[in-house]
Write a structure and sequence with these properties.
globular, three-stranded antiparallel beta sheet, Immunoglobulin-like, five-stranded mixed beta sheet, mainly beta, 106 residues
Length: 106
């Protein structure tokens, strides 16, 4: 007599799915918009770990790239920036999700 083996359902390897960000729900909050020493940028919590914040001048030159810190906000020093206007872009996987701007004053 042959032994009877029971087999259970086969398990497929589970792939960790990357969170998907909805561009319509993304917003950056920039305070103050007229800065002298720092600006605070608020961003959606779901952007943590999969997005970066890019700082551009008005000529389109990339000034700096910031990794998000997991707190929902990021403080950026503006003391080393020239007086002028700047654009912030929240980016994930080559997709621009949100943007904001501020003025650097004296």
């Amino acid at each position: 007599m042959l032994p009877i083996y029971q087999t259970g359902p086969t398990l497929k390897s589970a792939k960790a799915e990357k969170p998907r960000l909805d561009r319509q729900s993304m917003m950056l909050t920039v305070f103050p918009t007229n800065a002298t020493s720092e600006v605070i940028i608020g961003y959606p919590a779901e952007a943590d770990g999969i997005s970066e914040l890019l700082l551009y001048d008005l000529d389109g030159g990339l000034i700096k790239t910031y990794m998000l810190n997991g707190k929902g906000f990021l403080s950026i020093s503006t003391t080393d920036l020239a007086i002028g206007n700047y654009i912030l872009v929240l980016k994930s996987n080559d997709l621009n999700l949100a943007s904001g701007r501020f003025n650097k004053l004296k």
